[in-house]
Write a sequence for this structure.
C-alpha cells in the first residue's frame, strides 16, 4: 500500500478561504497504467490571529462625542462596537474601559458597547472627558484593540431667553434621504405675529459637521447628508435663536439631541458558499461538529445579532442540531455511514431586527461527510464446501472464498488467510483475491479430505474478523506426481562471482517407481531465468553470468520437475535467490561546482555541502566525509583505494575480487600542478571543517585572503564497507577580497634632493606603496597634498615624483609636502599619507657681484706704504664653494697688493703724480666647478683730482630683433660720452633681477622680461682711457619675444 501526503505549499488563511476542495489522482506504474480519483475536502480551522477592530474609529483616529450637561444618570452617550473576522470564541468581543485615564462618570456595557453616564455631568466641573475603550476577543490567548473616545460636555445657556431654553430629542433613521426634519417654531404666522419675522436661527459654529443645516429665518432644520449609524450613532448640537424685534436683541438656545436609528442595511454573510464538514460515525450524541460564523455589518445590537437555523435535504430525521445564537452544530442522534454517508444541510443566518419583516438573512450549503469507523465484521458469502481432483497441477484453483464488509476504505478491505487445517501446506490462499490454490500435488491415497479454517480480516483499527470452516474433498485419480521437498527455496549468492557459481540444489520425490519415478528438472521461462541454469538430473542450480546486485537484487525462479510417465506428471517449486552485496562501488560525488567563493573576514558558516551516493547496500552504502591533505593518506581505518569521481562502474580488465577500480578525474590536480598554480596544499591552518555525516563544509574562523587566497581541499568520501572504498574530490576555494588593508609605504618619511638646474620633468623620487588587497581594493593611485608651490608633480599610477617647474635654491632651498596613496575601492577607499622633504642642491649659476664698480679711491701722495687703501667686497648667492669668492688683479701690479680672501688692497710704493689716475682691473672668482668670474675697475685718484670720465646721457635706448642668433650686434646711434667714443666691452647690471654682470658679454636668458636696465662703464685694452667713440655690443640667446633694451 502506498501513502500520498497532502502538503500545503503556502500558509493558509481561514479568513480568506475557509474550505478547499481538490481531486486527487492516483496512478499505478503498470502498462497500461490504471488510475483512480477521489475528492478531498480540507477545512481550515480558525486560530485567533485577528484583533477586533472598530469600524467607527479608524486606526490613529479618535471618536468624538457630545453630551449635554445636566442630563439624568444612565443617559446613553454613544454605542461603540467592534468586529472580529475570526470565528467562535475568537470572534466574541467584550468591551471594557482602560484603567488609565478612566473616569467614574461613565460606564460601558461589556456586551453591547453602550456607554452611559453614572452621574449628572456639569460643564463647569469638567468640560470634556477622554476615555480608552478596549475590545477584547475570547480567544486563547485573547487579542484586543483600543479606541479613544473624546466626550465633550455641552453647557446649557445661562442668560435670559425670550424663547424658553429647552432640549429636543429626535430619532432619525440612518438611511433617510436629505430632507426637512423639523421646525423650531410653531408656524410662520406665529413668527410674524409675535416677532415681526425678526428671529434669526443658527447652529453654533463649533457644532457644525456638515450633516445638518438650518434656515436662518424660518427655523426649519434640514438633513443635508445621509447618516451612517456605523460611523456616528448620536449627534448633539445647539441652535441659537436671536430676537431682533426689540431694541435690545435677546437670544436663546435649543439643544438638539439626535439619535441615529440603525437600519438593517447589511445582510449576514458567510465566507464560503459551500462548506464541507467531516465527522466520524461513532461520535457520541452532543458532539460539536462545526461552528458557523456569519458576519453582519450592522452596528446596533439586534440588527447585528445573528440567529441560525438549519434545513436538511435528506429524507428522514435530521441527526444534527444548531444552536440558534452560537452557530454550533452538534449531533442529536447516532450516525451510521452505512445508512447515510452524507448529509446536506442548508444553514441560514438571520439578523434579529425588531421588525420581523425587516430581518435579513443569508444561507450556506453545508455538506457533512460521515467518516467511516470500523464497526462491521466481514461476512462470508462463499459456500463452505469444495471438491478437487488429486491430479490437478500445483497452483490450480480449488475454491474462490469471498467475504463482504460494508465499511469503506481500509475498514472494508478484506484479506484472507488460512487459520488452521493446512498443516501440510497443501493449499495457498491469496490474501487479496481469496483464490485458494494448490501448492503441491494432492494424493487421494494419502488423504481424502482437508478441513481448513479460513479467516477473513479487515484492515480497520482495531481490526475485525470472521472465520469459516471449509471442507475440501480430494477426488481420486490413479497417478502420483513428483513432489518437491520444499515449495519455496531461499538461496543467496554473492555478486561479481564468475559464471557457474553454485546457488542451491532442489529435490523432489515421486512415489512411483521405474521410469515413472525418473525425474527431470528445468527452470520455467520467466524474468531473468536465462541468468541461471539447472542440472536436469541433480537439480543443482548455478549462475550463467556474473551477477550485479546494483542491477537486480532478488530473483524468483520457478523450477519444474516432471516424471518419466506417459503422460508425464510434474510439480513446481519456487527459488527465491538473493544477491549478496559486495563493496564494489566507491561513493560517487554529486558535484554542482568545483569552484567555491568565500568572502574573507566572515564569521564561521557553512559554505558548501558535499554530496555523494553509493550504489551498494547496508554499511557498504553508508558514507562519511573527511578533509585530507593533498598528499596525506586517508584517515586511520580508511585505507581503501581512492576512487575519484569519474568512470564509475567501468570494468577494470585486471581487477579481481580483492581489488577496487581507480580512475582519473578532471577534478583532480597533481601536487606539481597545484604548486605551479600557486594553490595552497590542502586545508591550510585548519580553516575548514566538514561534518562527517552531512557533508556540510564550513569555515572554522574568518578567512584572510592576504594570508591565504586560495585553498585546494581534498574531500575524501568513504563508505563503511570492509574494506572500505572511497573517492576524493578537489574543491577549489577562492577567498574573495574585502578592503581591509590600507596602502603601505616602506617608510612614513621620505627625503631626497635635486639640483636646482634640473630640467622640468626630472625624476626626484620613486614612491611605491603596497596594498595587500586585490582588484580595485588593491589598485593604488598617488596624489600630493600641501604642495602649493607647483614645483613638483606625481604620476598617479607609478608614484614617480618629478619636477613640474624650474627650481631656484636661492629662492627656496627645500620643499616639504605630503603624498597620499589611496586604493580604488568603490566602497570606502583607504589611504596612507607620507611626508616628503626635498632639498634643492646648489648649482654654480650666479656670478660674483662687486658691491661697487667702478670703485673710486682718492689717495694722498703722502700716504704711508703697506697700509690698507681699500677693502673690496663682493657677494655670490650660491652655496659653499660656489659662493666663496677670491680677489685678484687682472694684471700683476707692483705698486699695490691684494689679499685674495679679504679683498684688502695695500699701497706698496708711492707713485709720482703723473701716474694718476691709476686704473686697476680687478677679477673676482668663485670656487665653483667650473668657476664663474666677474671683472671690475678700481680707479685711484690723487686727492683733489676731478674725475674725467662721464656719460653724456642718463638713458640710452637700443633695439635688438627677437630670435636673433648669439653674437648679434645692437646698434645704439647718437651715443656720446663727453664727446668721446670708444670701442669697448660692456659692463652690465641687471637691476630688476638683482644679478650683476661685470666686464663681460651679456647672455640674455629666455626668462628675461621685455626690458633690461643695466649700468655701463668703459675700458681700453691697455688700461682705462677716454676715447672719442663708443661701440656697444649686446649678445642675446633664445629670446622668443621682442625685448626693449634700456641702457643707463
Amino acid at each position: 500500500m502506498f501513502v500520498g501526503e497532502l502538503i500545503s505549499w503556502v500558509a493558509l488563511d481561514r479568513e480568506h478561504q475557509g474550505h478547499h476542495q481538490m481531486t486527487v489522482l492516483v496512478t499505478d506504474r503498470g502498462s497500461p497504467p490504471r488510475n483512480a480519483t477521489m475528492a478531498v475536502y480540507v477545512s481550515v480551522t480558525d486560530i485567533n490571529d485577528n484583533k477586533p477592530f472598530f469600524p467607527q474609529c479608524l486606526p490613529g483616529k479618535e471618536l468624538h462625542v457630545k453630551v449635554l450637561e445636566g442630563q439624568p444618570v444612565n443617559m446613553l452617550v454613544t454605542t461603540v462596537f467592534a468586529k472580529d473576522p475570526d470565528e467562535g470564541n475568537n470572534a466574541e468581543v467584550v468591551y471594557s474601559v482602560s484603567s488609565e485615564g478612566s473616569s467614574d462618570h461613565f460606564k460601558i456595557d461589556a456586551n453591547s458597547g453602550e456607554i452611559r453616564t453614572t452621574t449628572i455631568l456639569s460643564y463647569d466641573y469638567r468640560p470634556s472627558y477622554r476615555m480608552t475603550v478596549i475590545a477584547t476577543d475570547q480567544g486563547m490567548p485573547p487579542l484586543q484593540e483600543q479606541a479613544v473616545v473624546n466626550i465633550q460636555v455641552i453647557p446649557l445657556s445661562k442668560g435670559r431667553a425670550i424663547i424658553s431654553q429647552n432640549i429636543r430629542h429626535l430619532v432619525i433613521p440612518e438611511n433617510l434621504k436629505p430632507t426637512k426634519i423639523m421646525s423650531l417654531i410653531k408656524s410662520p404666522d406665529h413668527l410674524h405675529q409675535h416677532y415681526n419675522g425678526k428671529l434669526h436661527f443658527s447652529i453654533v459654529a463649533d457644532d457644525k459637521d456638515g450633516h445638518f443645516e438650518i434656515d436662518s429665518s424660518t427655523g426649519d432644520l434640514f438633513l443635508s447628508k445621509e447618516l451612517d449609524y456605523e460611523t456616528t450613532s448620536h449627534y448633539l448640537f445647539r441652535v441659537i435663536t436671536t430676537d431682533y424685534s426689540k431694541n435690545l436683541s435677546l437670544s436663546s438656545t435649543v439643544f438638539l439631541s439626535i439619535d441615529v436609528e440603525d437600519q438593517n442595511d447589511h445582510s449576514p454573510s458567510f465566507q464560503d458558499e459551500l462548506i464541507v464538514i467531516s465527522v466520524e460515525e461513532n461520535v457520541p450524541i452532543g458532539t460539536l461538529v462545526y461552528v458557523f460564523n456569519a458576519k453582519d455589518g450592522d452596528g446596533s445590537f439586534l440588527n447585528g445579532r445573528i440567529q441560525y437555523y438549519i434545513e436538511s435535504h435528506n429524507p428522514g430525521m435530521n441527526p444534527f442540531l444548531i444552536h440558534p445564537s452560537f452557530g454550533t452544530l452538534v449531533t442529536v442522534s447516532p450516525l451510521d455511514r452505512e445508512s447515510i454517508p452524507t448529509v446536506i444541510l442548508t444553514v441560514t443566518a438571520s439578523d434579529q431586527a425588531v421588525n420581523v419583516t425587516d430581518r435579513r438573512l443569508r444561507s450556506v450549503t453545508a455538506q457533512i461527510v460521515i467518516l467511516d469507523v470500523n464497526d462491521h465484521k466481514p461476512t462470508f458469502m462463499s459456500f463452505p464446501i469444495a471438491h478437487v481432483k488429486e491430479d490437478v497441477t500445483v497452483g490450480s484453483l480449488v475454491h474462490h472464498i469471498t467475504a463482504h464488509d460494508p465499511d469503506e476504505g481500509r475498514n472494508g478491505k478484506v484479506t484472507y488467510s488460512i487459520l488452521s487445517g493446512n498443516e501440510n501446506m497443501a493449499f495457498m490462499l491469496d490474501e487479496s483475491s481469496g483464490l485458494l490454490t494448490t501448492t503441491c500435488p494432492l494424493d487421494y491415497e494419502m488423504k481424502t479430505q482437508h478441513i481448513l479454517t479460513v479467516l477473513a480480516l479487515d484492515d480497520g483499527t482495531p481490526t475485525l474478523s470472521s472465520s469459516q470452516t471449509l471442507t475440501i474433498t480430494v477426488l481420486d485419480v490413479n497417478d502420483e506426481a513428483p513432489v518437491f521437498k520444499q515449495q519455496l527455496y531461499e538461496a543467496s549468492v554473492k555478486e561479481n562471482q564468475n559464471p557457474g557459481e553454485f546457488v542451491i540444489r532442489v529435490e523432489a520425490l515421486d512415489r512411483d517407481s521405474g521410469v515413472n519415478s525418473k525425474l527431470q528438472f528445468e527452470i520455467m521461462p520467466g524474468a531473468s531465468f536465462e541468468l541461471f541454469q539447472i542440472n536436469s538430473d541433480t537439480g543443482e542450480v548455478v549462475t550463467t553470468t556474473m551477477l550485479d546486485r546494483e542491477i537486480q537484487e532478488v530473483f524468483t525462479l520457478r523450477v519444474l520437475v516432471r516424471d518419466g510417465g506417459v503422460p508425464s506428471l510434474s510439480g513446481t517449486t519456487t527459488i527465491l535467490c538473493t544477491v549478496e552485496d559486495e563493496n564494489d562501488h566507491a561513493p560517487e560525488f554529486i558535484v554542482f561546482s568545483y569552484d567555491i567563493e568565500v568572502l574573507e573576514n566572515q564569521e564561521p558558516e557553512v559554505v558548501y555541502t558535499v554530496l555523494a551516493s553509493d550504489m551498494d547496500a547496508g554499511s557498504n552504502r553508508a558514507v562519511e566525509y573527511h578533509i585530507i591533505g593533498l598528499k596525506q593518506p586517508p584517515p586511520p581505518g580508511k585505507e581503501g583505494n581512492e576512487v575519484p569521481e569519474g568512470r564509475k562502474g567501468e570494468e577494470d580488465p585486471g581487477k579481481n575480487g580483492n581489488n577496487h577500480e581507480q580512475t582519473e578525474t578532471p577534478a583532480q590536480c597533481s601536487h606539481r600542478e597545484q604548486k605551479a598554480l600557486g594553490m595552497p596544499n590542502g586545508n591550510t591552518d585548519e580553516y575548514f571543517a566538514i561534518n562527517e555525516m552531512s557533508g556540510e563544509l564550513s569555515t572554522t574562523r574568518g578567512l584572510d585572503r592576504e594570508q591565504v587566497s586560495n585553498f585546494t581541499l581534498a574531500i575524501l568520501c568513504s563508505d563503511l564497507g570492509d574494506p572500505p572504498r572511497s573517492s576524493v574530490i578537489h574543491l577549489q576555494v577562492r577567498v574573495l577580497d574585502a578592503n581591509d588593508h590600507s596602502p603601505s609605504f616602506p617608510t612614513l618619511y621620505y627625503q631626497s634632493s635635486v639640483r636646482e638646474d634640473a630640467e622640468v620633468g626630472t625624476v626626484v623620487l620613486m614612491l611605491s606603496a603596497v596594498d595587500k588587497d586585490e582588484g580595485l581594493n588593491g589598485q593604488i593611485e598617488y596624489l600630493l597634498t600641501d604642495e602649493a608651490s607647483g614645483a613638483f608633480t606625481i604620476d598617479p599610477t607609478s608614484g614617480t615624483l618629478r619636477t613640474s617647474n624650474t627650481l631656484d635654491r636661492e629662492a627656496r632651498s627645500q620643499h616639504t609636502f605630503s603624498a597620499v596613496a589611496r586604493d580604488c575601492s568603490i566602497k570606502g577607499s583607504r589611504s596612507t599619507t607620507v611626508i616628503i622633504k626635498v632639498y634643492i642642491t646648489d648649482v654654480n649659476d650666479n656670478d660674483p657681484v662687486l658691491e661697487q664698480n667702478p670703485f673710486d679711491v682718492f689717495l694722498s701722495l703722502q700716504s704711508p706704504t703697506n697700509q690698507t687703501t681699500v677693502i673690496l667686497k663682493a657677494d655670490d648667492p650660491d652655496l659653499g664653494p660656489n659662493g666663496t669668492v677670491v680677489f685678484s688683479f687682472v694684471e700683476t701690479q707692483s705698486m699695490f697688493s691684494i689679499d685674495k680672501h679679504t679683498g684688502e688692497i695695500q699701497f706698496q710704493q708711492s707713485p709720482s703724480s703723473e701716474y694718476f689716475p691709476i686704473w686697476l682691473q680687478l677679477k673676482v672668482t668663485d670656487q665653483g666647478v667650473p668657476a664663474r668670474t666677474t671683472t671690475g675697475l678700481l680707479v685711484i685718484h690723487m686727492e683733489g683730482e676731478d674725475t674725467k670720465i662721464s656719460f653724456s646721457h642718463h638713458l640710452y635706448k637700443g633695439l635688438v630683433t627677437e630670435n636673433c642668433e648669439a653674437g648679434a650686434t645692437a646698434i645704439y646711434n647718437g651715443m656720446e660720452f663727453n664727446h668721446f667714443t670708444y670701442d669697448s666691452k660692456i659692463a652690465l647690471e641687471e637691476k630688476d633681477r638683482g644679478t650683476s654682470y661685470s666686464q663681460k658679454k651679456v647672455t640674455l636668458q629666455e626668462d628675461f622680461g621685455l626690458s633690461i636696465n643695466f649700468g655701463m662703464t668703459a675700458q681700453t685694452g691697455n688700461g682705462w682711457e677716454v676715447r672719442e667713440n663708443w661701440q656697444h655690443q649686446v649678445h642675446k640667446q633664445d629670446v622668443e619675444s621682442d625685448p626693449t633694451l634700456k641702457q643707463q
